[in-house]
Design a protein that fits this description.
It contains twelve helices and eight strands. It has 310 residues and is α/β, with parallel strands linked by helices.
Length: 310
């Protein structure tokens, strides 16, 4: 994509002008970048890609701040009639909501489309009875893993180069002592990285649709994914149990009837029926199956997003 098709917007008036253009689109691709992205970090750049124009709009939140949302971004993101494609929206939407009070609507999480596609290929087995000797081992096997964007691009679109390109930039980000996303002018390397994170989402979206993924199920699941971290009280710290890991949380693909009441998990803060826990209801390690899996991993195996990016 030529440089002229990448627009860095660093004033409220430019925000307003770009948002007016983007409201003409029916589908946009969105991604956020920042240091320790989420409520306790920063949100420095928002990437919005328009396939109808083949243009990338980089909204400079570091320079414009909350005024940018009052000049079009809030209305754009909260418009339910415009579909926003995101990939693993958890930390992005947590930052948007807790820092700027923006509740993104019209959301389709492409990572969840990949999960639905994978599960369609291998039907889910029913768990054995709770009294069965192999019950807990089957529970652990039932945990779904989510894939990263690079892996999806590689396997679904056949692009072998994206993984390496993304990894190189992520290594560079992690090696920097400062927040590189607030460097101005924004380095071309980072602008290109932003482009890589959004330009393939449309192709992935249409490929998963062609594979028969039910878009209505994805939209409902995407809202639950959006609210997964966002619903945790703002005063709580966000831990390894709720962000940056590669396990699908509970109650995302479908509403589980026993969730939302009973005993609170010490990892993700969600409430479950007592049958979700082993025999540790009285211990400090009162974990649901996903958090129990995360807790059992060696520290070196915890998969977190780069500290300088999303």
């Amino acid at each position: 994509m030529p440089d002229r098709m990448i627009h860095v917007l660093d004033s409220a008036s430019l925000f307003q002008e770009a948002c007016l253009k983007l409201t003409e689109d029916k589908i946009l691709a969105v991604d956020c970048e920042g240091l320790n992205l989420g409520r306790n970090g920063t949100l420095d750049i928002i990437s919005v890609f328009s396939t109808s124009r083949l243009e990338l709009f980089l909204f400079d939140i570091t320079s414009v701040g909350s005024q940018g949302f009052d000049n079009g971004l809030r209305d754009l993101f909260e418009n339910p009639l415009i579909t926003k494609l995101m990939f693993d929206c958890r930390q992005d939407t947590d930052a948007l909501y807790h820092i700027f009070g923006v509740n993104i609507d019209g959301l389709v999480d492409v990572q969840l489309m990949d999960v639905f596609h994978s599960l369609n290929k291998q039907p889910k087995d029913r768990l054995p009875a709770r009294s069965a000797p192999n019950y807990w081992s089957e529970v652990d096997k039932s945990i779904t893993r989510v894939r990263g964007l690079g892996a999806c691009i590689q396997t679904i679109l056949g692009n072998e180069d994206v993984q390496t390109e993304k990894r190189n930039v992520q290594v560079m980000m992690q090696s920097q002592p400062q927040n590189i996303w607030c460097i101005r002018p924004l380095p071309k390397t980072l602008a290109d990285y932003c482009l890589e994170d959004v330009k393939y989402l449309f192709d992935l979206y249409y490929m998963y649709m062609s594979y028969g993924v039910c878009i209505e199920k994805v939209k409902s699941a995407s809202i639950r994914y959006r609210d997964y971290i966002k619903a945790i009280p703002k005063t709580d710290n966000i831990s390894k149990f709720v962000c940056g890991h590669n396990l699908l949380p509970h109650n995302i693909l479908e509403v589980e009837p026993y969730l939302g009441q009973g005993t609170q998990c010490k990892g993700c803060f969600k409430r479950f029926n007592a049958r979700e826990f082993k025999k540790d209801l009285g211990s400090s390690k009162r974990f649901c199956r996903v958090c129990r899996k995360l807790d059992s991993r060696p520290k070196s195996n915890h998969r977190h997003r780069p500290c300088n990016g999303s």
